[in-house]
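Re: that chain you flagged

S.,

Sorry for the slow reply, it's been a week of failed gels. I finally had a moment to sit down with the sequence you sent. For the record, here it is as I used it:
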Amino acid sequence: MLGSEASELVGRWRSYPWQREIMDASITPGVREIVLKCASQVGKTEILLNIIGYHIHQRPCPILCVYPTVVVAESASKDRLAPMIERVPALRERIAPPRTRDASNTLLHKRFRGGHITLAGANSPASLASRPIRLLLCDETDRYPPSAGDEGDPIEIAKQRTKAFSTAVTILVSSPTIEELSQIERAWTRSDQRRWHVPCPRCGHLQPLEWSRIQKWGRDEHADGEHHPEDARYVCSGCEGALDETERLAMITGEGEWRCEGEPGAVRGYHVSRLYSPASSMEAIVRSFLEAKRGGRETLMVWINTMLGQSFHEAGRALDPEVLLARREIPWEKLPSDCLVLTCGVDVQDDRIEAEVVGWGEGEESWGIAYYVFRGPPDQAGVWKRLDELLAAAWEHESGHRLRIAIACVDSGHHTRTVYAYCQSREPRVYAVKGRQEAGIPLVGISRRRRGKAAAKRLVDLILVGVDEAKSVLYARLGREKGEGYCHFPAIADYGEEWATQLLSHKSRIAYRKGVAYREWVKVPGRPRDEALDCRVYAMAALHLLRPQWPAIRKQLARPLKREPEETRPPARRRAPWARRY
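Prediction finished late last night. Pasting the structure tokens below so you have them in one place:
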């Protein structure tokens, strides 16, 4: 029984033809594993709930549902499982109502006659290894961590719980992600790879629905040269007829059949895209594609994963510095009107300090403002004084206002105690940061660290920066042509060939640990230096710490001008930044 929290179609569940076999496969003799690689919002959660409800009512057994985290498992229990039990009388009779002191029905564990159901998080090895299981349901497997603690692949840990039952069934469900990292993609390749074939209402030809067959809306079809998603048609692969939305709905709501494209076996594989969803029209699908394409490679990947239910192929190639240099723009005399905030990323080396000032706008569109190299040993006060001069400077904005650096992040990997001492007295405008090169680490996090024995009672905020996440975001944005996240660079000496080589000094590749694939970042051969990349990563971390309120900043820049003294201008340049000595 569907409620308003799950669907617009409130009331008793009605299966679409393509959904029936997926649910029936869980009780088909000989089937030991089911793989559902699908788009988002196609009813996969309801399919899992139906399977759970059927087994509670008709085939009671021990059931384990695994979600990416314990928090997600708790949310699924409260928002989806509990409402289903409450609405269906046959289930309500078999599961005791939740009571504070009743251990048979808790948030993550519910008992019923002949079995029980446990909800667990893939990040909790204890919840995966607690009891024998006959029905294992793994939802959103591509969001699982690579390892459950230190014990390895959470899916394999959970599968070990099914060894006590010869008739055990495992169901893996997820929207895919990057091809080389996708758990559901690997499971799909070893399945029999079934696709739902539907008949053309004109010629009767059976065919799977494919994105490439949606046509007739492009610029070539119209004299004005504009896209017209409302004119989208599905072109039949048999008669080449252009089918409208009414005919597509007739195809997906009518009868069809699942056909195998892989080797038959005990693993059933099903692929479902949003093209089979009556809730998504062809016009809406085309519009979302055009929007994703404008957003660049990052948003296009999300569209492919969630709309088509397909994995995204990401080659581990290095970006070309020449391409980056060719897209530099005419230098701006004043900060552009859309540049609303300045941050600074600072990298500390043994004989110098390097810093980049970056401007930011809505959608994290960015502008490279200036790059500085302050030469001198960081254990002496001279270079830090020059950094102070930079952080006190102001740049003229097109509005007439002067913008100062709102927040700066300083690398503490070298001369750690000196950096702590410098940042501790300048918080919350200047923070010490430390990069962590590990998958799954968020772009910013905070950890308390002591500044040193001489001041053991004084603490400094150390910002932990997930450099893998930052590089993934940055390199995806460097591939964009315009729009949110686009990176602007001026054609000045600060942003020359050496800078471009350093910024693009890393590339990603797929590696394996304990049989689990993960993405790692390695240096490109011939590009040994990476200070420019580190500075940009720390400037990004500074923006995430700042959390700017863009409407308020625009309103502030629209106010009457207040002139600032000349001495707040940025340090004057004497030579090219890569040979500059201050």
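What I noticed first: The chain has two domains: 17-208+252-282, 330-494+531-568.

Talk soon,
D.
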